C-alpha cells in the first residue's frame, strides 16, 4: 500500500459503523477522494476536530489497488474554519459551497484552480467583519457559483452570440435561452431572459477580481439577483435537481430582499 501525503479540504463526513467515519476530501494533488477514518468517532480519536467541513488539513493516507476508499493514517489541521459556523448564515453558505464542489468535481482529478478558489473564498469569509450583512454573504456565494461553473465548463460565454457568433460586446442587451445560450437581438427576437449591461458588468467584475477584492467592493444587489437566477438555473440544469443545502441558504432571501427595498 503506497503512502500519500497532500494538503486537502474536508468537504463532508459520514458515520460508518460505531467508531468510524467516511470522509470526502478535495486534495491538492489527487483531486476529490473518499477515505475511511478508523476510530474517528471515539472520544479520544487521533483525528480530533480535523474532520470538520472545510478544514484545511495535511492528509496522510494509504491506497490499495482497485479500492475506491483510501485509508486515512493522519490528518493535521493547517487552518480551521470552525469560527465560520458560529453564524447560521455563514454556516449555510459554506455547506452549500461544499455541496457544489462535491457535485461538480469528478473523483481523482486534480484541480488546482478550484482548490485555490476554495482557499481564497474561505479567507475572505474569515476576514469579514463581525457585522457582515446577509447581502455580502450572498454576493460571495454568487462569486463562487460563477467561478465554479466557469471552471467546470458550464458558465455561458457572454462574449459571442451562440447562434450567429456575433460579437456581443457592443450589444445593449443579451438574451439567454432556456438552455442559457446567449443570443443577440436579431437571433433572440427579445425572447428569453434579458441581461442588461449592469448584469453583464457584474459578471465581468466577478471574473476579474479576487474573492477578497470582490467581497470588499460595493455590490448592485439587483444585478446580483439576476446573476443568482442564471447560476441557479444552470446548476439545476446540469445536475437535474436542486441541491439540498440550497433551501437552507435561501432562508437568507427575505432579509436580503427587505434590505434592498429599504435601500
Q: Could you tell me the number of beta strands? A: 8
What is the number of helical segments per DSSP (H or I, 4+ residues)? 9
Main sheet: which strands, in order across? 1-2-3-5-4
CATH class of the largest domain: Mainly Alpha
Full CATH superfamily name of the largest domain: Recombination protein O, C-terminal domain
Number of domains: 2
Order of helices and strands: EEEEEHHHEEHEHHHHH
> What sort of overall outline do the alpha carbons produce when their principal axes are compared?
elongated
Fill in the CATH topology of the largest domain: de novo design (two linked rop proteins)
Radius of gyration: 20 Å
Poorly predicted parts: 254-263
Q: Which structural category do the helix and sheet elements fall into?
A: alpha+beta
Mean pLDDT: 89
Distance between the termini: 60 Å
Note the main sheet.
Answer: 5 strands, mixed, barrel
Q: In percent, how helical is the residue content?
A: 40-55%
Question: How would you describe the oligomerization state of the chains in this entry?
Answer: single chain
Strand content: 15-25%
Which CATH architecture of the largest domain?
Up-down Bundle
Please give a handful of descriptors for the protein shown.
alpha+beta, OB fold (Dihydrolipoamide Acetyltransferase, E2P), de novo design (two linked rop proteins), 3-stranded antiparallel beta sheet, disordered C terminus
Amino acid at each position: 500500500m503506497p503512502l500519500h501525503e497532500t494538503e486537502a479540504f474536508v468537504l463532508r463526513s459520514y458515520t460508518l459503523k460505531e467508531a468510524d467515519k467516511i470522509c470526502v476530501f478535495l486534495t491538492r494533488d489527487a483531486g476529490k477522494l473518499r477515505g475511511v477514518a478508523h476510530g474517528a468517532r471515539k472520544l479520544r480519536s487521533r483525528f480530533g476536530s480535523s474532520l470538520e467541513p472545510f478544514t484545511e488539513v495535511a492528509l496522510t493516507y494509504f491506497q490499495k489497488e482497485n479500492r475506491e476508499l483510501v485509508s486515512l493514517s493522519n490528518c493535521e489541521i493547517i487552518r480551521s474554519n470552525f469560527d465560520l459556523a458560529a453564524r447560521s448564515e455563514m454556516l449555510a453558505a459554506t455547506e452549500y459551497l461544499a455541496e457544489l464542489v462535491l457535485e461538480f468535481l469528478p473523483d481523482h482529478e486534480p484541480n488546482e484552480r478550484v482548490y485555490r478558489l476554495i482557499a481564497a473564498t474561505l479567507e475572505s469569509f474569515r476576514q469579514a467583519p463581525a457585522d457582515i450583512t446577509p447581502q455580502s454573504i450572498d454576493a460571495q456565494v454568487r462569486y463562487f457559483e460563477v467561478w465554479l461553473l466557469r471552471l467546470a465548463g458550464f458558465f455561458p460565454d457572454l462574449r459571442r452570440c451562440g447562434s450567429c457568433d456575433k460579437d456581443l460586446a457592443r450589444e445593449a442587451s443579451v438574451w439567454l435561452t432556456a438552455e442559457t445560450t446567449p443570443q443577440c437581438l436579431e437571433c433572440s427576437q427579445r425572447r428569453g431572459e434579458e441581461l442588461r449591461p449592469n448584469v453583464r458588468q457584474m459578471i465581468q467584475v466577478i471574473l476579474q477580481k479576487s474573492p477578497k477584492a470582490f467581497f470588499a467592493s460595493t455590490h448592485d444587489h439587483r444585478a446580483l439577483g439576476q446573476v443568482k437566477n442564471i447560476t441557479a438555473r444552470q446548476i439545476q440544469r446540469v445536475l437535474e435537481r436542486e441541491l439540498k443545502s440550497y433551501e437552507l441558504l435561501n432562508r437568507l432571501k427575505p432579509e436580503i430582499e427587505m434590505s434592498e427595498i429599504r435601500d
